[in-house]
Amino acid sequence: MLYEALFFLFLHYANVYRLRAVIRHWVSTDRKFSGTLKSLLGFYPRNISLYRMAFRHKSATQNSPDDINESNERLEFLGDAILGTIVAEHLFSTFPYEDEGFLTKLRSKVVSRQHLNSIARKMGIPQMMNMNTINFAGSSIYGNAFEALVGSVYLDQGYKKTKKFILDRFFGLYVDLHELETVETDFKSRLTEWSQKEKQELEFRVIQDPQHSQDRGFHIGVFVGKALMAQASHNSKKRAEQMAAEKAWASITQQV
Questions:
Q1: What 3-state DSSP class applies to 233?
Q2: What is the per-residue pLDDT for 14?
Q3: What is the mean pLDDT of residues 3-18?
Q4: Structural contact between residues 71 and 56, judged by C-beta atoms closer than 8 angstroms
Q5: Can you say how many angstroms the Cα of residue 164 is from the centroid of all Cα atoms in its chain?
Q6: pLDDT tens digits along 190-228
C-alpha cells in the first residue's frame, strides 16, 4: 500500500511538472524558440534566457560593456566539462573490456572540434546562432555553441536531465561510435609527420596564457617557419594544441 501511494504521488508530481512546462511554453513571449528547443532537447526549457545565451557568439556582443558574460563562452566552458564527464562514463560502460588508451582516444574523437561541429550542423544549431561575423571558415563556432547548450541544459535542468539529453539525443541520434573508432583525429601527429616529410619547421607556441587572455584559456598558435598558420584557444593546453592543429591541417589539405 505504501509503495503504491508513493508511486501515484510520483506520477502526480511528474504530471504537474510537465503541465507547468507546457504552461510556461504557451505563455512565453518567445514561444517559437521554446518550441524549437522542445524539438531539439525533448523537453520545454525553464529558463529560456540561458538557451538564448548558448547561441550568442561573442561577435554579437561587441558593443556590450561586459561581452564575456553576455556571450556563450562561459556556458561553453561549463558544457565542455559536463559533456566530457558524461561521454567518459558512457564509453566506460559501453566498452567494459577496453583499456584506458582506447577509451581516451575514442573520447577525444567524440568531443573533437570537427565532430562536434558536424553534430551541431545536423542539429540545426547554425540556424539558431546569433552572431555578427561572416569569417568563420574552419572555426569551431557551432561545436562551441553545442557545448554551451549542454551547459545551459545543466543549469536549467540539472545533471540527470543533461545526461539523458546526451545519451538519448547526442549518442542516440547522431553519434556512431563504431564509425568513430576508424577515424583519425590526432591532427598534431599528422602535422608533425607532414612537416618532417616536407622539411618544414613546425612549432606550437603559446600566444597567450590563461592569466593574460580574455577568455581565461590557452591561446596556441601553429607556426610553419615564421608564419602563423592557425590558432585556437581552450582551457586545456593539449586540447588547444589539437584544435589549432586541426585548423592548420584543414588549411593544408585545402591547398593540395
A1: strand
A2: 45
A3: 49
A4: yes
A5: 16
A6: 888 888 888 889 999 998 887 776 767 788 899 988 889
Residues serving a catalytic function are: 80, 147
Query: Could you give the CA distance from residue 18 to residue 121 in angstroms, rounded to a whole number?
Result: 29
Please check the confidence at residue 172 and state whether its pLDDT lies above 90.
yes
- Cell 504557451 locates to 26
What is the structure's pLDDT at 173?
94
DSSP secondary structure string for all residues of 52-76: HHHTB-GGGGTTSTTHHHHSSHHHH
The DSSP bridge partners found for residue 205 are 221
- Nearest-angstrom CA–CA distance, 15 and 34: 19
Given a contact cutoff of 8 angstroms between Cβ atoms, the answer to whether 137 and 60 are in contact is no
Q: Which residues of 56-94 are buried (b: 16+ CB within 10 A; e: fewer)?
A: bbbbbbeeeeebeebbbbbbbbbbbebbbebbbebbeee
Q: What DSSP letter does each residue of 179-224 carry, written as one string?
A: HHTT----HHHHHHHHHHHHT--EEEEEEE-TTTSTTSSEEEEEEE
CA dist 225 to 52, 198, 241, 242, 246, Å?
Answer: 42, 12, 17, 19, 18
